[in-house]
Amino acid sequence: MERRGEENSMSVECDGGCESCSKKSECNDPRRERWEEKQRLKANMSEIKHKIAVISGKGGVGKSTVTVNLAIAFAMHGYANRVGILDADIHGPSIPKMLGLRGQKLQALAGMIFPVIGPLGIKVVSMDFLLPSDESPVIWRGPLKMRAIQQFLSDIKWGGLDFLFIDLPPGTGDEPLSVIQLIPDMDGVVIVTMPSEVSQIVVKKAVAFARQLGAPVIGIIENMSGFICPKCGAEVNIFKSGGGRKIAEDLAAPFLGSIPIDPEICSYSDEGKPFIVGHQDSPTSKVFIDIVKKIEQYIEKRNHMEIPVKEDVCE
Ligand SMILES: Nc1ncnc2c1ncn2[C@@H]1O[C@H](COP(=O)(O)OP(=O)(O)O)[C@@H](O)[C@H]1O
Ligand SMILES: [Mg+2]
Q: Domains of the chain: which residue ranges?
């Protein structure tokens, strides 16, 4: 940020170009602070090879469940100690509960803040690790939430990772917007939906949102797709079935797989144990493994594509 006027008339003629400014070490302009934060974010994120956000149009469709089990599936298939989860649901963080990490805190050491380490070495950062008690709500407007997410990305020492999954709250509000803007080189978004028509209407918004912001849609997962009665073995389509595949076809987006309703998924989550750890050979675990392979193939294909550099919109 070159100051061309009086030595002390800070940044009157500043052009905001901190990069090449010879005076930046003595500059107090708030723009320098933002520039430095942006540099930290870039450096921190450059250590993480792939960043994938999990979004949906509606709440309660299983985003967090999918994020946790997908992260575990990656860790179990060659990426142990190389996977992270950012729980970017500021108002309703649920990743720590699902991974049995409630009550833990982010660790500060030698001026750095470190994620909490979960099963299979998964590094987790969540608002939940910063709240004083179970009942504490976060009552924040958009800019504060964006700031928190920015700091989670720039100031936490994630270290080298192969995959960072970002679990987002429902809809197309502040948090998904912040994440997509703050990580311009994100690999893409995975969209979770339920098969019902009500969910399909809102999933279209999620796909349009990602596309408008230039985030590639890796694919759509249909969760809560059918239920096999444990007593008689009959399949009951409680929320219908096939809606996820249909919407993927309608929107020309890849379909990644269908996860059935399984009471064990719910009870395992409540006990803080990821379902697929205890049910490695179940059909549902196989669906997750299949999704891991599809995401790997997507990344492999993307590695061979010319990807235009997206405009940096960290402000
Ligand atoms: N396939 C499934 N079968 C049974 N329960 C599920 C399934 N997917 C999610 N759940 C349960 O549904 C509830 C909501 O899931 P969650 O992942 O928190 O949704 P979201 O993050 O989209 O709000 C949780 O209690 C979770 O355990
Ligand atoms: Mg959630």
A: 34-303
